[in-house]
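Hi support team,

I submitted a single chain yesterday and got back a structure, but I'm not sure I'm reading the token output correctly. Could someone confirm the output below corresponds to the sequence I sent? I've pasted both exactly as they appear in my results page.

Thanks,
R.
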Amino acid sequence: MMWLGKINDAVGRVMAWLVLVLTVIVFYDVCMRFLFRAGSPALQELEWHLFALIFLLGAAATYKVQGHVRVEVLYQNLSPRTQTIINTLGDMFILLPVCVVIIKTSIPFVEAAWSYDESSPDPGGLSYRWLIKAAIPAGFFLLAFQAIVNIVSNLSMLIRDREN
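Hi R., thanks for writing in. Yes, this is the structure output for that exact sequence:
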């Protein structure tokens, strides 16, 4: 089970480097547009494609390190055991079902883009739009896997604590 967490660590590191790549590309694009009045539709599309990848594929790594948003006003005052129970129930009954629904509904979306060989409608835009759309189910697969790792880890911790 821990190999799933390592996959998310590796994907998270790649996404962290993509943030740097995206920053350089945006800087270059802005300089070209404002200094030389030269822009590229493909470069602008690459920017939003990279942002989508960072967001979708990086979510699981962020969730693994508890970097997501939560209502700390209530949560921080609870005991660690209660926090663990809330996290486990949330993963089981909210996060996993949402991931399943998004995966199930996004796969036909990706298949349609692939079968039509969808590309950018803009002249000079990027081809193979199905690749970026495939990041939707891939990102939610990674997030679901991380939720499963968290559930197993939390349940084993709760059982261990109960035995002591």
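A quick pointer for reading it: DSSP finds six helices and no strands in the chain. Let us know if anything else looks off.

Best,
Support desk
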